[in-house]
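FAQ: What does the model actually see?

It sees only this:
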Amino acid sequence: MSKSILLIGSNGQVGQELEQILPSYGNTISVARPIVDLTEPDTLRRIIKSNQPQIIINAAAYTAVDKAESESELATAINATAPLILAEESQKLGAYLIHISTDYVFDGNRCHPYQETDATNPLSVYGKTKLTGEQAIRDNCTHHLILRTAWVYGNFGKSNFVKTMLRLGAERPELRIVADQIGSPTWAKDIAAVIAEIIPQLKIEIVGTYHYTNSGVASWYDFAVAIFEEAQQLGFPLKVKNIVPIATAEYPTPAHRPGYSVLACGKISALLGTYPPHWRQRLRQMLLGIGR
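And it is asked to produce this:
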């Protein structure tokens, strides 16, 4: 039987990918700003009540990590309060709530992948607000699935690490890139595909927190080098000749970031019966999709 799905945040990187594939899995209603403002709880409740969805997918978030340090109230409203509202309304409807979270709920003080059950300790306002949103969902919605992911980039949207590197690489001969933060670059299209794949399997027992990223690990420096190698092979216009690895201390930012935030994906791999594809392979696919 076809499901009724409400997608919130359809204008984001993952949201736009979901908007393309969700109609194959159910009757999908997509909303984003200005139709829905996550800082206005009453509007959010009204949209949910008027649509009566069986599944709510929250792909919206305040993701400006550094800006959140000076806009904590706004980040809290979007990342913490809005998920609480979604959880409460989902519980009233008996709906499933699928919510996207982040590796930044961890402090990065380790050297092996984080399991879903590992202790959290966010270092930034962004990470703290996302963790608060997670807990609000756990406390208020029986049927929920929280999907933590990391280092997201995609074909949609104006700004992500890949597009920023391509822009800067076309303008400058040398770039200095942080080499002591380690994670797993993840293609937004793969996140959307996993969420879509989960939908037909949703049952009472499939609840809780799951990790999903592309496989493999990299520093931001490794990621940048790979972007330019792949882009050069595909004929992108580049001026960059030298990529210099630097320490986080040489590139201070308002928000503190985890030094190591690789997520263990065994739990979701067991659920789906497949392991995530490697990030380098998916980077190549993304670059093929945006052209030159």
